[in-house]
Design a protein that fits this description.
The protein is 67% helix and 2% strand. A two-stranded antiparallel ribbon has the order 1-2. The longest helix has 29 residues. It is globular. The mean pLDDT is 97. The chain binds Phenylacetyl coenzyme A. The site of Phenylacetyl coenzyme A has 28 residues, from α2, α6 and α9.
Length: 314
């Protein structure tokens, strides 16, 4: 059978590393995969505001409060760029948002963990933003133009977030024995879940082969996870933190840190809704949506009036 000329042209452009834009022809699977990934990513940013938002009123100093407020606002902005970028694929923000509120859409499992002490805010910046940057620096090279461009700005802001997280962890580790204990205790809780942010192992990933063919994924889940491990183990040691993994060892032959087994059962439990905060997170988003009803109604009424005025003037 002759290949479809439109499809052949699409793959020719991918091979030439040309960017695919919203008005170009692309296969339905390309659209579906991008909507899945971009909407999950947008939801992660919006739900990701909640664990940190929990500490805005309790930040230890005014300077920390300003930094945290700005970070949480940035995450809202990231969600909005990503919803807008996904809308170029023919789905509305409202449709995506309803999927989140009805529990049909995924968001990063990491945001179903609680923030129990101030040290958790340092860990989120250092580890969670750190993982997001490694993943997203690759996505900034993905084949879909609007997603790749959104990633460039998001990564710049995430870098700033990572630095504020590292500064918090560094301050705690240079503090009293109690502050150091608090940092170590938070590190023990966040280390393993952040390793799961890169997705399931390559051989168990149902989406990776197609995403790689479409040049949406440029590096595999395991490759990015290894890059993260090498970077974070070195940083943990520099901070004076102990990596909570008795099997951790440096492999001289490859120059990489090798970790013990990841508990994927825990990951699937969280994904299926049984994480420590799944219910609370969705409830908070639903409540925020309900509380915002008057804003949406007011905006719609304003828009209706503006249109009526325009029509009368015409
Ligand atoms: N959580 O076949 P794969 C951030 C699902 S942003 C939940 O390997 P894929 C910024 C996956 O969806 C963090 N679900 O999937 C921030 C799939 O299910 P499906 C979010 C996960 O897509 C910082 C199934 O497992 N970043 O942190 C997870 O090839 C601080 C099979 O997996 C992005 O979304 C997970 N961790 O690779 C905000 C980046 N892992 O959909 C606030 C874009 C896997 O078939 C504060 N996304 N699953 O039903 C990606 O790069 C990819 O989607 C992966 C997963 C790498 C996450």
């Amino acid at each position: 059978m002759e290949p479809d000329p439109k499809e052949a042209e699409f793959f020719r452009r991918l091979d030439a590393d040309e960017s695919i834009e919203p008005k170009d022809w692309f296969p339905e699977r390309y659209r579906k995969q991008l909507i899945r990934m971009m909407s999950q990513h947008a939801h992660s940013e919006i739900v990701g505001m909640l664990p940190e938002g929990n500490w805005i009123t309790r930040a230890p100093t005014f300077r920390r409060k300003i930094g945290l407020l700005a970070k949480v606002q940035d995450e809202a902005g990231h969600g909005l760029y990503l919803y807008s970028a996904a809308e170029t694929l023919g789905i509305s923000r409202d449709e995506m948002y309803q999927q989140l509120l009805q529990g049909q859409a995924k968001y990063s499992h990491i945001f179903n963990y609680p923030t129990l002490s101030w040290a958790d805010i340092g860990m989120i910046g250092w580890l969670v933003d750190g993982a997001a940057i490694i993943n997203q620096t690759m996505l900034a090279k993905c084949s879909y133009g609007p997603y790749a461009r959104a990633m460039v700005r998001i990564c710049k802001e995430e870098n700033f977030h990572k630095k504020q997280g590292m500064e918090i962890v560094g301050t705690l580790m240079a503090g009293t024995p109690e502050q150091r204990r608090m940092a170590q205790e938070a590190f023990d809780r966040w280390w393993w879940p952040t390793l799961m942010m890169f997705g399931v192992p390559d051989q168990a990933s149902p989406n990776s082969a197609e995403l790689t063919r479409f040049k949406i994924k440029r590096k595999s889940n395991d490759e990015l996870r290894q890059r993260y491990i090498d970077m974070k183990v070195a940083q943990a040691h520099a901070f004076g933190l102990v990596v909570p993994d008795p099997d951790l060892k440096f492999d001289d032959a490859t120059g990489h840190w090798r970790i013990g087994p990841i508990d994927w059962n825990e990951f699937y439990r969280v994904l299926q809704g049984a994480g420590p905060c799944n219910r609370e997170r969705l409830e908070a988003r639903r409540q925020a949506y309900a509380d915002g009803a008057w804003v949406r109604e007011a905006a719609a009424a304003f828009e209706k009036k503006r249109r009526q005025k325009e029509e009368t003037a015409a």
